[in-house]
Amino acid sequence: MRAKFFRTKYLTGSRIQMRYLGLLMISMIIPMIFLGGCLYYLIFTLLAEQIGIPEYIAHNLFPVVNKINLMLLVGVPPLIGILVLWGIVLSHRFAGPLERLEDELKKITEKENYKHRILLRKRDDVRPIADAVNKLLDKIEEKRR
């Protein structure tokens, strides 16, 4: 049995996908912000205080600080956008098959159609679960005969 279908909706709005996407975003964005903040603090605050940079050198550092701020303003939003898109793709690969599995099981139980089989794509991570359910349905069909 080979599934011949493609999922076209990447954001399905299902509860499991939203939870998984939220976890992915938190696990990617919070460390990025923390690391960036720590580096920023280390470079510009600690060094200036510990070394005791004279005022005329500190005055020359302000353009550098402004350039770094500009680079952060320009570079971080696209990076966050890329992380969000990657999170959507990953959550889709996980939540899409689960949603399809849930829908197929509802069809089987609501209509009591034990001849119906669950078809998932070959690379879906929950394929072994669908195969086990299909084997169970085969055994139920054999006993009903």
The biggest sheet, with number of strands, parallel, antiparallel or mixed sense and barrel status, is: none
Q: Report the strand count.
A: 0
Alpha-beta classification: mainly alpha
Q: How far is it from the N-terminal to the C-terminal residue, by CA? A: 23 Å
Which shape, going by the Cα principal axes? rod-shaped
Number of helices: 3
For the record, the count of structural domains works out to 1
Structure description:
The radius of gyration is 26 Å and the shape is rod-shaped. The model has no long low-confidence stretch (mean pLDDT 80). It is mostly helical. It has one domain. Helix content is 77%, strand content 0%. Helix 1 runs antiparallel to helix 2. The chain contains 3 helices and no strands.
Record keyword descriptors for this entry.
145 residues, rod-shaped
Secondary-structure map:
Elements: H1 15-51, H2 55-111, H3 127-144
Helix pairs in contact: 1-2
Short summary:
The protein is an all-alpha fold. The longest helix is centred in the middle third of the chain and has 57 residues.
